[in-house]
Amino acid sequence: MSSKVRQVNSKKTDQFKESVIREMTQFAIKHKAVNLGQGVPDFPCPPALKEAAVKAILDDINQYPITFGDKLLRQTLTEKYSAALGFSIDPETEITVTCGTTEALMASILALVDPGEEIIVFEPYYENYFPQTVLAETVVRGVSLTAPRWQFDPDELRQAFSDKTRAIIVNTPHNPTGRVFTTAELTMIAELCQKWGVFMITDEIYEHILYDGARHIHPASLPDMRDLTITITGLSKTYSLTGWRIGWTIANQEITTAIRKVHDFLTIAAPAPLQRAAVQGINLPTSFYLDLAQQYAAKRQYMMETLDKVGMPYNLPEGAYYIFSDVSKYNFVSDIDFAKQLLEKVGVATIPGSTFFSSKSRQANSFVRFCFSRRQETLEAARERLWQAKF
Ligand SMILES: Cc1ncc(COP(=O)(O)O)c(C=O)c1O
Asked: Which CATH number describes the domain made up of 13-45+287-388?
């Protein structure tokens, strides 16, 4: 490399590491471990969606679509989410289809938050949020969700809001803890957003994976939140389609115009044939969503029994497909050390909990995340290894 090239990394990329989640997947492959790490199902998506994708390709839906989303998909989303949010959405001006929830979040942050402004994030948080805020040159303000119940302290939340706050990211159902925020909690957040004129950027990717009668509350449906909320979700988790990269934002026209500008220059559009095929998924009958929740309830039960026998404590997940287990009693140097030993000696890959915390958090080193969006055989193989292990 020429000596004239200054250091390769930009100052921004210097501030975050490569994804630990993807790194653990590589280790799992290398060590032939049972992989309960990355949040990706190891079973196929519904057959109707595969057929719809093939059909869309054969029907020549293969060129750039309208940048902000396939018209039929936006129409279909409008019907579903107007009913869910309790107000009518205009598909022409209020929905943007993106390359997954990931792009939807990035585009929203870039569109709405200026460098130096603060974004409140509940901690632990999905690992992408931090690099995304760094890329946008914004400042993260963490508010703790505290073990074992993973609730926030209302005073800490109140104190986090200020004139510098521009947005709060709310992920419910929550990765990694499985918390589903209650109406009371969301109302408290909503009232603070209204008081300070702050946007609520939601991440509702696990909206349909709920247990024991838990109800998902769409924050935009709360009183006076329509114009402050950017509702974000996508196909990845509900339809077991993490590789299709389809997500969307729902927000009022002014916000959507800003998001669309960023989206166009970031990615132009999400994959055209897969957007069309997504219509088939959104239109699946209610029974599909009930089956999904039931299948995940059985997987959660199986995984909990596995951990119960080993004696690893956790808080009962109310939604999403993870168990965030407290491994502090095993006296390892750190959660990373624990996860490494578990992978190399027991043959089970997890995600070390510190991935989901800022380095400042005192809770950071105590947890590992088990993902149970797996076939029964995978969960059985993990159980066999864990039950034979000596901790
Ligand atoms: C909370 C959360 N948000 C977003 C994503 C990524 O979603 P997408 O595949 O739609 O980009 C994940 C994936 O694990 C997640 O857990």
From this structure: 3.90.1150.10
